[in-house]
Amino acid sequence: MSASAQAASPPSRTVLTHGRAVWLMIAVTLMWATAGVVTRHLEHARSFEITFWRSFFTFAALLVILPAWQGRAVFARIRSGGRALWISGICWCVMFTAFMVALTLTRVANVLVTMALGPLLTALAARIFIGHRLPPRTWVAIVVAGLGIGWMYGTQLGDGLLAGTLVALCVPLAGACNWTVVQHAHAKGHDVDLVPSVLVGAAMSTLLTLPLAWPFQANAHDVGLLAFLGLFQLAIPCVLSVLCARVLKAPEVALLALLEIIFGITLAWIGAGEEPLPSVLAGGALVIGALGFNECLGLRDRRAAAVALPGTR
């Protein structure tokens, strides 16, 4: 989620101070982190049905939230968004679908640690497809994070968890593709509003998983939990993260987004008794450490540049 939140969006009247944006982003990561523990308390819903209901309720929520926030013109922007917006919608569809399917196949910690690769995969995609030059610190971070993920994957070859972890890898890959498409469109003078593209992605995910979810098995308890995920774990925090990204710098957003991993693993451990494997904790420490190191140095470089050029922000 966080890797794509920094793309351009229409101006908003909402004004956030830096401190409030930080606290709001922390709240956003806590909302994102509820997916694992809530999924573990479902009674009958399984696999694609879980994805269908969450995507459906996200779509329904955004149909209300977006016109209230941006006016009915948001639907005109979808119609005139062009190819980039629809490709972005496909990327969101992949992220929504792969994330929930992965949670049904493997442990919460495996999914969240794999998703942490998002910013580094995004940087690599920008280098390959857009030509952005990467500083040495980012190359080091990519190598270290790769070692961490390789260690985590290698220890899962015989325990049946690797399939879910590989599905989870689709999430940061789609996120990297999403960001690259948005940045390429921006370079061509066409800004993509990511919030309407989330609506498009939710609609696509709903339609894609409907035939795979039938016949429905979820009871009222399950549907209530999945409605919670659609509204409070996805729709609302997606909108709030866009607001935060207008105030916070990209490294700050990436660093704060790491809290989702800590919150998510902790909630699943405490709320569902799902203890993370030692190999996942070790691999995750390498991934989080590499990402944190890279983003902290990036933030320091930005601040140094701002001091050197007082007219910049």
From TrEMBL:
Cite the EamA domain residue spans from the record. 21-152
Transmembrane region positions? 21-39, 51-72, 84-105, 111-130, 137-154, 160-182, 194-214, 226-248, 253-270, 276-293
Name the domain of life: Bacteria
| Any one Pfam family match given in the protein's UniProt record, by short name | EamA
Keyword hit for Zinc-finger: no
Give the matching InterPro entries: EamA_dom, EmrE-like
- Which key words are in the record? Membrane, Transmembrane, Transmembrane helix
Q: Which PANTHER family match?
A: ACYL-MALONYL CONDENSING ENZYME-RELATED, BLR4310 PROTEIN
Q: What is this protein called?
A: Drug/metabolite transporter (DMT)-like permease
What is the scientific name of the source organism?
Answer: Variovorax soli
